[in-house]
Specification:
seven-stranded mixed sheet, 6 helices, 785 residues
């Protein structure tokens, strides 16, 4: 793979079945290999200054922030290169705010609420709206503020408009609305989500249909200023806080009921999440311990342990802090410094027939991999460290890319995993333990976080590369994170994350060694009151001719009706517009069984709650008979223990997730591959009964649906559309990785997957390879390091 390109996954027909074939598409005009590495110091976002302290109705103090989402230029590339236009959120009252993405970090003790007034300020100096920096596909089920009418002639936001009788034309060739349509170029909808927050009301969650436009001076006539749910949820926010919500605003109150952990902030506007996250605005949100029981103990003393970066471990002047949050992203750039993101489906798989003449959206791409690694808003930075212990909080903030942090080129380092996205783990996990099949490495799916103790005490001074061993492919392994069985990234670009420059220690290290940490107990959740079963799947465009690509047109979640342990099941594809079908009651504990018989893994994220991963099991599914077999269970990875809210579910696997739903409201469950989330792989769920005045689904309305053979028909979304999608998915699927992917990986890595012939896999640990130059070798099983 050329480092200047962007690797994607296309689906080409071999015989009857489609197979996944990696291919290089034209990336940005800046060759990633020409970007200097390790010449820019790591930026560690400071703590966000709050505006003021208010009081809740119950008399509890609450910190208040007003944050504006703006566009600005940031030096993401090394000095001497052009700056990059990005979005970020900035304090409205701080006289010297950090203007950077990731933004300054909001910090709060556990159980102390925080209020944030988010405002969409994507306007220029004359208050004219700024169009999106990327091409917006208007054919998805999306925010749709322009409100082109549906097949029945009715304008409405938050739905899939009709383009019957029209032909797609790229923006640079669009001259007339007569018979043609193009990318949306209007003002940008924004809906802010605090990823991982639990115990909050739906008014604060950043519901996808609660978006707002900026209060620009030139909003065209007929445009909606906000999504269908904004008025209802804003009224609830006003009742909760006493504040009126401005027309360009979203008011949230975060109760911070989570166990102490790192959350993160990103956009969640319907059908735009992939683009708005790519544009930049994100940041960390840290919930800190409020009492000793929140913290690990030092097993040697029985007293609370001292973790790096705490008050007992101060940072010397001029040194990096001892706690380092790392937001890791992949991006591609143009020579003028702008970010590159595909503006046509042709970039992905050479599709040339689009809606309504086929089922293919003209701009949306199923996945995206950039060719440069960005950490905390800088390409390939370096960090000046000392021979001591550090706490790394690693966030995979990529749209589609899995990461596997590789510490094996750092001599005599010790790395221990102490927490995940749900907080501290029940037990510390040594990444260099001989039993770890991914020895010295830590895989992370999109949206996942890892809390690590990086111990450089015995590391000699020098410069060492923190690597990435997850390749430019959607981790096709069927048995979980077996890194050495996967295609590799480009060695000199996406195979590198940042440089660690280790210097001598400055005095003693007061922190507790990871091996002495005794973690807080995490009680099991109560037995489940009910079970809901969900399938992950993808719809393919049918092509009758041999050798013609069969492309992914939709990704979606399905409801599984029936218990596979008792007999055949029925699979009912569900669209975003369908009525709510997942409806736990307040206080109910539910087992959410997520089945993946698609060709790729999916990181599944559940809003509002954290869950316990009860089990992972191999599955096989016959879509002709409805037989769904649950096979051998698989051990949980250390990062899957404790509590989670995002988990990677692999092809041919079922993950059993247990959660207790204590707070009423409307929330979502979705795939955190953002391209998938934006094209139907997300459904709403409601806790408790529907609220008076809440908008319903649009399932009773009609929209056009294009059949796989290109004919246009009108469907009732409650029945016909789901059935038509089900007809589309009755197609055997084979995934084979080779060709360009194998070349990029330096060898051939092939996985075949046929849904009608899926066999129950047995987990056979594979010894990790240590043949790569410069890598530490794992010890013999049972030996001491």
């Amino acid at each position: 793979m050329s480092a200047a390109g962007v690797l994607t996954l296309a689906y080409a027909r071999v015989g009857r079945a489609p197979e996944a074939v990696a291919a290089t598409i034209p990336g940005g005009t800046l060759d990633a290999r020409s970007i200097q590495q390790f010449v820019t110091r790591l930026v560690v976002p400071p703590v966000m200054a709050r505006n003021r302290v208010e009081t809740t109705a119950e008399g509890q103090p609450v910190d208040f922030y007003e944050l504006h989402i703006r566009q600005f230029n940031q030096q993401m590339l090394p000095a001497g290169n052009p700056k990059t236009p990005v979005w970020g959120y900035v304090s409205a009252t701080d006289p010297n705010p950090l203007v950077h993405t990731p933004a300054a970090t909001i910090e709060t003790p556990r159980d102390r609420p925080v209020r944030v007034l988010w405002r969409n300020k994507l306007v220029d100096e004359k208050r004219r709206y700024l169009p999106h920096m990327f091409a917006v596909d208007p054919t998805l089920h999306w925010a749709n503020p322009e409100q082109p009418p549906d097949a029945a002639g009715r304008p409405m936001t938050d739905r899939m408009p009709s383009f019957a009788g029209q032909r797609y034309v790229p923006r640079d060739r669009y001259t007339s609305a007569e018979g043609t349509y193009t990318a949306y170029t209007g003002p940008v909808p924004i809906s802010v989500h605090l990823h991982g927050a639990m115990g909050l009301g739906d008014e604060s969650d950043g519901y996808p249909e609660s978006w707002v436009l900026p209060d620009a001076s030139d909003i065209p006539d007929g445009y909606a200023r906000h999504g269908r749910w904004w008025q209802h949820l804003s009224a609830k926010a006003t009742a909760l806080t006493g504040h009126t919500v401005p027309i360009d605003g979203q008011l949230a109150q975060y109760p911070n009921k989570n166990r102490p952990t790192a959350l993160w902030i990103h956009d969640h506007a319907l059908g735009l999440t992939r683009l708005n996250v790519m544009a930049g605005y994100t940041g960390f949100y840290m919930i800190r311990p409020a009492k000793d029981s929140d913290q690990p103990l030092d097993s040697a003393t029985g007293r609370p342990a001292v973790l790096p970066g705490t008050g007992a471990d101060p940072t010397r002047a001029g040194e990096l802090p001892h706690e380092l949050p790392l937001a890791i992203q992949d991006r591609s750039f143009n020579q003028d410094g702008t970010l590159f993101y595909p503006d046509s489906r042709r970039h992905f798989d050479a599709s040339d027939t689009f809606l309504p003449a086929s089922g293919i959206a003209p701009i949306w791409v199923p996945e995206f991999w950039g060719n440069a690694i960005v950490v905390n808003g800088r390409t390939w930075p370096y960090a000046d460290l000392r021979a001591r212990r550090y706490r790394l909080i690693a966030l995979n903030a990529c749209n589609s890319r899995s990461l596997s942090l590789d510490f094996r080129k750092v001599p005599r380092v010790q790395v221990h995993l102490i927490g995940n996205d749900g907080g501290l783990l029940p037990q510390v996990a040594d990444l260099f333990a001989s039993k770890n099949p991914n020895w010295g490495q830590l895989p992370l799916g999109p949206g996942e976080r890892a809390d690590l103790i990086l111990d450089l005490t015995d590391t000699p001074p020098g410069r060492y590369v923190l690597g990435n061993t997850a390749g430019e492919i959607l981790f096709p392994g069927t048995e979980g994170w077996l890194i050495d069985q996967q295609p590799k990234p480009h060695e000199t670009t996406t195979g590198r994350v940042m440089e660690l420059r280790v210097g001598p220690a400055l005095g003693s290290d007061p922190t507790t060694p990871a091996r002495r940490l005794r973690m807080p107990a995490i009680p099991d959740l109560p037995a489940a009151d009910s079970t809901v079963r969900i399938a992950l799947d993808m719809t393919h465009q049918r092509e009758p001719a041999e050798g013609v690509p069969t492309q992914v047109s939709t990704t979606y979640l399905s409801q599984i009706v029936g218990d596979p342990r008792k007999g055949p099941v029925k699979v009912v594809p569900k669209m975003w517009s369908d009525p709510v079908w997942f409806n736990p009651q307040v206080g109910e504990t539910v087992d959410v069984e997520v089945y993946n018989w698609s060709v790729v893994p999916h990181p599944v994220h559940l809003h509002e709650v954290s869950y316990q991963v009860v089990s992972r099991s191999a599955i096989s599914y016959d879509d002709e008979t409805g037989d769904l077999a649950i096979g051998q269970s698989r051990p949980l990875e250390p990062i899957q223990t404790g509590r989670k809210e995002t988990i990677m579910v692999f092809p041919g696997e079922m993950a059993q997730l247990r959660a207790t739903f204590n707070h009423p409201g409307q929330f979502v469950i979705h795939c955190h591959l953002l391209e998938h989330e934006d094209n139907e792989m997300m459904v709403p769920f409601r806790v408790g009964p529907a609220e008076d005045g809440a908008p319903g689904s649009v399932a009773h309305e009609v929209s056009d649906m294009t059949m796989m053979d290109g004919t246009e028909q009108v469907y009732d979304l409650t029945i016909d559309r789901a059935d038509s999608v089900r007809q589309m998915m009755n197609q055997p699927i084979t995934l084979a990785i080779g060709g360009a992917a194998a070349a990029a990986a330096g060898g051939g890595a092939v996985l075949a997957r046929h849904r009608r012939q899926q066999r129950v896999q047995k987990d056979t640990p594979t010894a990790p390879s240590s043949a790569q130059e410069g890598l530490r070798e794992p010890p013999v099983q049972g030996s001491n390091r």
